From TrEMBL:
The lineage of its organism: Eukaryota, Metazoa, Chordata, Craniata, Vertebrata. This is HB22 protein. It comes from Atrichornis clamosus. Keywords: Adaptive immunity, Disulfide bond, Glycoprotein, Immunity, Membrane, MHC II, Transmembrane, Transmembrane helix. It comes from the Eukaryota. Residues 13-87 form the MHC class II beta chain N-terminal domain.
Length: 93
């Protein structure tokens, strides 16, 4: 039976690498009870709502230039940084 009163919220960050780390895309997805509410894609550079609630939240977050700048920078600070660190262990020398 379904569990009432149990909720799940999580954020998933993804790095997509093309041609090594020359072309990198950062995607951050926001979920609530297994449904994606909104996402950020570094290719577009802004939040996109996938539900009415996500559209409201995305519109609010898109009005904050410092937040968008931080998310866009994740391509370098999160993705490329971890690519450089991870290749030492994941790629055969």
């Amino acid at each position: 039976p379904p569990h009432s009163g149990v909720f799940q919220a999580f954020v998933k960050g993804e790095c997509h690498f093309m041609n090594g780390n020359e072309q990198v895309r950062f995607v951050q997805r926001y979920f609530y009870n297994r449904k994606q509410l909104l996402h950020f894609d570094s290719d577009g550079g802004h939040y996109v709502g996938d539900t009415p609630f996500g559209e409201d939240s995305g519109g609010n977050w898109n009005s904050k230039p410092e937040l968008l700048e931080d998310r866009r920078a994740q391509v370098d600070t999160f993705c490329r940084h971890n690519y450089e660190v991870s290749t030492l262990f994941l790629v055969d020398p």
